[in-house]
């Protein structure tokens, strides 16, 4: 079983902010409510793998701030169905970024053409990630609803520590998904830590928190950051 971040306690509120490259990284690390960074490139595509240079800079900065980074591993936008070339690239990126001490985990997700969990691909990715933590990202929301609970069991058996979900594949308000998210959170309790995101912001988080127990929270605007003015 993979390890979760030792500095994060599941019964405390955890805010994970999603950062594109090094933009706003310093502000996010300095924010007292930010518990963890998800590091991505190309957020307009749902997030892809950052360059090694960005990852190294972020790792060094995170170590100084004593906050963990989880790095997205995704070779392209669009589908979550990967061929042999995609997989080889992902494994190489994991091997490279895994050497960075500030990178405490990786965010991955692989599906079959039928939108079921791709067990073979996930086993290879998780074995490469060990002993660092694995998050299965929002590709999970494409899994048919009737299969989601058994998919949580499957991800637990594979060694996934965190599951990131919006509760729906649609780009709808998070409030519309609360009933389904509550069912997922209840089922996942003690198996895998649910991270709820996509539409969670510093403006609505305080209304959402009392409605979902035992989850962590994720978003690009999970906290209010001062404006970043590059030269």
From TrEMBL:
Pfam families: CutC. GO terms for molecular function: copper ion binding. SUPFAM superfamilies: CutC-like (SSF110395). It comes from the Bacteria. Belongs to the CutC family. This is Copper homeostasis protein cutC homolog. The lineage of its organism: Bacteria, Pseudomonadati, Spirochaetota, Spirochaetia, Spirochaetales.
């Amino acid at each position: 079983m993979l390890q979760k971040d030792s500095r994060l306690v599941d019964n405390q509120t955890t805010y994970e902010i999603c950062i594109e490259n090094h933009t706003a990284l310093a502000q996010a690390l300095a924010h007292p409510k930010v518990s963890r960074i998800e590091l991505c490139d190309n957020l307009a595509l749902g997030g892809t793998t950052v360059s090694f240079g960005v990852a190294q800079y972020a790792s060094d900065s995170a170590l100084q701030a004593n906050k963990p980074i989880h790095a997205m591993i995704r070779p392209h936008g669009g589908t979550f169905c990967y061929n042999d070339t995609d997989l080889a690239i992902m494994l190489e990126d994991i091997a490279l970024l895994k050497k960075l001490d500030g990178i405490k985990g990786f965010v991955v997700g692989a599906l079959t053409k039928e939108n079921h969990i791709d067990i073979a691909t996930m086993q290879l990715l998780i074995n490469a990630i060990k002993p660092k933590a694995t998050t299965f990202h929002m590709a999970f929301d494409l899994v048919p609803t009737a299969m989601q609970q058994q998919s949580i069991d499957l991800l637990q058996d594979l060694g996934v520590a965190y599951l990131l979900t919006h509760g729906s594949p649609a780009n709808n308000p998070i409030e519309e998904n609360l009933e389904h998210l509550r069912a997922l959170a209840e089922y996942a309790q003690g198996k895998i830590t649910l991270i709820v995101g996509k539409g969670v912001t510093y403006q609505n988080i305080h209304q959402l928190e009392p409605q979902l127990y035992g989850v962590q929270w994720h978003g690009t605007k999970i906290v209010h950051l001062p404006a970043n003015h590059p030269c």
